[in-house]
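Extended Data, panel c. Modelled sequence:
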Amino acid sequence: QVQLQESRGGSVQSGGSLRLSCAVSGYTYNLYCLGWFRQAPGKQREGVAAVNNDGTTRYTDSAKGRFTISHDNAKNTLYLQMNNLKPEDTAMYYCAADRSSGAFCYPGSSMYYWGEGTQVTVSS
């Protein structure tokens, strides 16, 4: 089994920054794809960013240029650095993992393992 645990999110003003982290534990062998998703109230969950085992990162258009996904292999921790946050970034953020790789790892791709989520609130 694989466990994912997000750090506490937070509340910031528009233009501010937050860094989310996600501790990955358990049977992490062959976990090739890691990603961040979010779900705003009344909306469907959407992908934000993904990183695969060769370090390739992919972002949605809304995240590109503002968010950075990274993975520390030594700490087995996934990060999402979010800069220039906007009120529309307010959502519950989830980290997720899967054993898919390569072209099958992208923002919003199917993931098998999920964290419980952490709230990010951006005020104007």
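The longest strand covers residues 18-26. This feature is highlighted in the accompanying rendering.
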